[in-house]
Known about the structure:
The chain is mostly helical. The protein has two helices and no strands.
Amino acid sequence: MQTTTEQPRARAVFSTNDFALMKEVLGEMISKTSIDDERLTRMSALYHRLGRLG
């Protein structure tokens, strides 16, 4: 039997459906929350990045 030192392949943590759900929840938060501009900017950027993934 041969042993190998290769690392096992990484598994995905989130599914495509998870990304869609996170985007939906984040969109609701953005539309219903009054938060400071910096945080809203970061949340909006995350929302758009999730859209590209899911």
